């Protein structure tokens, strides 16, 4: 393990110093676009004000013959579009692919000062983060990038899940992690053919009742992994996200999956087609009534200690801390969303 004194030293002479705290931003959805698809690229300027993060995808779902066009398309979009406060991310190809070295070098050398976060797929352990960390520092130094580009890991292999805590603490460049349920299902040899969501056979059968039909209560396939990822991320100051939900015909199931992730501690999810943007906004923005109640808790206990009764409910230091999480998030969301700002009463 690296000496604690060296942890925040730049990995290349002339590279920007690693951040000690993540930028404070609402990142309720990471909206994916395919940069080789001209129709999709033409819609980017309209999408910028609607989403918190736009991500140019270079990895899975981009055909092998379009990988280079996608990379060039992403660089061009980054050059010409004004992203304002909206985050600009890319998902590069995985580290054993023939495209990743050019993905990293061309993107950082040409638009390194516009890119906020590089998403790295199929991360197996801290060694993958160390590799990207080092090469990013070298390129930042070489091409005068003045803010460190952050790394977001996809948790989508059994090995990655096993090593999740070491991945979280591998570098001060770590931004967070997303659950990748499709690759993770394949890696674990789960018997499913889906991109996220539940499965009708994964459940608990209620006890026998004489002669009566018994109900199978469906369970969340992703509960264990999301909870493990949330603990690894939050204990290291990183942000956890749910990844993709592939059944575009079932918005209710998408919303339920996003909501489980939100309640367990995730701050956002991927959105793969426009109707999922509204779902992510609904789920990952705190509820108006909950925020108003949380504000009353903070007002009733200005220094966060002691006890108070509000509407017959006991409040103490622990509920004050929960209320603060909700109100802090609401303030971030209010910056991007005037309607919710009014609802929250800021
Ligand atoms: C995402 O990349 C996934 O594999 O689910
Ligand atoms: Mg994947």
Structure description:
The protein is of the alpha/beta class. The chain folds into two domains: 29-284, Alpha-Beta Barrel (TIM Barrel); 290-344, no CATH class. The chain has 14 helices and twelve strands. The protein has an eight-stranded parallel β-barrel, surrounded by five helices. A two-stranded antiparallel sheet has the order 7-8. A two-stranded antiparallel ribbon has the order 11-12. β4 (117-120), α5 (126-142) and β5 (150-155) form a beta-alpha-beta unit. α10 (251-264) packs parallel to α11. The longest helix is centred in the last third of the chain and has 20 residues, at 317-336. The mean pLDDT is 96. Residues 60, 121, 154, 156, 180, 182-183 line the site of magnesium ion (MG).
Fourth-level CATH superfamily of the largest domain: Phosphoenolpyruvate-binding domains
* Helical content band: 40-55%
The chain-level structural class is: alpha/beta
The count of β-strands is: 12
CATH architecture of the largest domain: Alpha-Beta Barrel
| Radius of gyration based on Cα positions | 21 Å
Low-confidence stretches: none
Tell me the fraction of residues in β-strands, as a range. 5-15%
- Shape designation: globular
Overall tally of structural domains? 2
| Average of pLDDT | 96
Largest β sheet strand count, sense and barrel closure? 8 strands, parallel, barrel
What is the N-to-C order of secondary-structure elements (H for helix, E for strand)? EHHEHEHEHEHHEHEEHEHEHHEEHH
Strand neighbour order, sheet with most strands: 1-2-3-4-5-6-9-10
- Named CATH topology of the largest domain: TIM Barrel
Bound molecules: glyoxylic acid, magnesium ion
**Terminal residue distance:** 45 Å
CATH class of the largest domain: Alpha Beta
Number of helices: 14
